[in-house]
Every structure is written in C-alpha cells, then in structure tokens.
Amino acid sequence: MTDMTVDTGPVQGESRSLWATAMLRLRRNKAAMASIFVLIVLALAGIFGPMLAPHSYSKVYPEFVKVKPSLESYPQEEQVIPAAESALRRARVDLGAIDVEDGKVRIEVSSDSRDIDPRISRYLDRSSVFSDAEITIDPADPKKGVIEASVQQLYFLMGTDANGRDLFSRILISLRISLMIGALATAVALTIGVIYGATAGFVGGRVDNVMMRFVDVMYSLPFVFFVILLVVFFGRNLVLMFLAVGAVEWLDMARITRGQTLSLRRREFVQAAEALGVSGRAIVRRHIIPNTAGTVIIYMTLLIPKVILLESFLSFLGLGVQEPLTSLGVLISEGAKNMRNAPFMLFYPAATMTILLFALNFLGDGLRDALDPKDR
Length: 376
Known about the structure:
Layout: H1 18-28, H2 30-52, H3 77-87, E1 94-101, E2 104-110, H4 122-126, E3 130-137, E4 144-151, H5 167-203, H6 205-220, H7 223-234, H8 238-264, H9 268-275, H10 280-291, H11 293-316, H12 328-337, H13 344-370
Antiparallel strand pairs: 1-2, 2-4, 3-4
Helix pairs in contact: 1-13, 2-5, 2-13, 5-6, 5-8, 5-10, 5-11, 5-12, 6-8, 7-8, 8-11, 9-10, 11-12, 11-13, 12-13
Transmembrane segments: 31-53, 177-203, 223-248, 288-308, 344-364
InterPro entries: BP-dependent_transpt_permease (IPR050366), MetI-like (IPR000515), MetI-like_sf (IPR035906), OppC_N (IPR025966)
Main location: membrane
C-alpha cells in the first residue's frame, strides 16, 4: 500500500480584514501619515508644553507689553536704564550714574532731605527686569548709596500679548484647551448621535418618525441662543462648553447613523440574527454600531475641527474660555484687536489653528479613501 499525496498547489495568502486593508491604504497616503505626525506633535505640545515652557501662561511682565518676537533675550541693552529709572521712580531718591555691564546694573542714588532707606532695593526686585538687588549705603554720608542688581534674561520667542504675557506659553495652553474641548465634545456628540441614530433606524416605524422629528426641532433652535441660555443658568466653564457643543453636534451624527442603519437592517447577517432570536438591543450593539464604525471614524475627524471652530467662535464672542485660561479662539480674537501695531499676536495663533485644521482635514480625507468600499 503506497501513500498518495495530493498537490494542492501554492498556499494562498491569508485574506486581510477590512481594517487591515484600510490601514495598509492609509499608510500609503503620505498626506494622511504626515497629518498624523503633526497631530501627535501638537497633542504632545498641548499636554506637556505648558509644563516645560520657560514662562507660565498667566505670568504678567508689565515691562514687556507687546514686545516683538526675538531669539535674543529681553531686556535689550537700551531698555535696561529706562527700566531702572521706572522702577525707582517712587523711591523718592535722586538717581546718579547708571552703569550696565556683564548682566549687572549699578545705580548711584542720593537724597537731599533724609537718609537712604535700605528697603528701596525692593522696588527693583518687584520689577520683572531685575533680581537680587542689594544696596550699599555710604557710611560717611547716609544720604548716598549704590544699588547693584542682576539683569534677568527673558526670552519671548513669539513675543508677548497686550498684558505682557508670553505668547508662546499661551499658545501651548490654548492647544491643550482647544484639543480637549474638540475631543471631548466630539466624543459626547458621537456617543449620543450613534446610539440615537442606530436605535431610530433599527426600530423604524412611528418610533423612528417621532425620534427624527425631535431632531428636526433641535435643528430649529439657534445654537448661539442655546449657549447663551446655558451661560445664564450655569455660568461659564469648560464643562459647559462640552455640553453646549456636544448637545448640538450629535444631530448630524444621528442622521448619518440612521441612514447607515436603514441600509444595514436589510442585510443578511441582521436577518439571520433576528431569525436566531437575538434581541434588538443586542443586534444594534453587536452588528449595527460596529458596521457603522468606518463612517463614524471619518465623521469624527471632520467633526473635531468643526467643534474647535465653534469653540473659537464662542470665545471670540466672549462666551467661551475665560481668563487666565485661553484657547486659540481667544488668542485670535485678541490678535485681531492688535493686528495693526502687533501683527504677530494674530499671526502665530492663526497659523497654529490653520496647521491643526489642515492636519485634521487631511486625516479625514485619508480615512475616507482608506475605508471606501468601492476601493476594496
């Protein structure tokens, strides 16, 4: 008896799932992959940037209001002497020679009416220009003395705003706030919209009709009016922003999910699940919602920039984030007011928002192409 072997030919490669194929196509999209890298960088900058920034986003430098962006340290050499004169203006002393050398300032002071008070050095310490001020009073003549202090080196890579706060630090914290509002409000909108739309589309009939008429009524309410009512009753806070934006943006998601559900409800696997006695809730959870994930993910990447723009619009109107926190919308609003004499205050926040929105839109386009069933 001989063993017989059957040649089945070359082994066929394993078939890829929809998600594996989509990820493969997404990796080939250079614009989408570059957008993912940019979004990761911006997210890390928003999360860790404020902790690593050289200045606090709320720190005010009265001597450096609307200073221009520079790679050199402030104060510049020609600003030290005026800053010293301004700091000692209320000390009731006469200023003599002021010498600046090697990061140190030496100021001769005198008084005609009384002895020098050693506490006048505190006027320099209170200034954001000087530190470690010490006064030496002439033992032979207590009405004369010399103050020595260190000149601080402050770097404002993107300049300062109208209150003297570092614009670079404020852009970093605004990235955190804008991305947080965009992500959380989008999560709220998707959660409500997917569940609501999937339920309406699967149940159908009068229930679907009533649920979608409620959506139509919500569409008729002015968004700004809705936000103003929330502000009047609950005040201004970040949670309010999540609720206000998420409570409106879920309407589009509900309609999209309902349309997808109506087409999926007639598919064979749903009818098979019904024939096996699977409950409607289980079918929606296990079959309907997972099969709408592609559309949901694409819409999410398009909804986040829309939410960020809505938050910026509300902040521009004064209904959004409040001081000392800030967002990209707040910074753009402030920059628009000072664009004539300080155009950098508008340029840097606007450029940051433009990069963020472009990256999100390119990623959304890449996901749409990768998950398009016509390209399988």
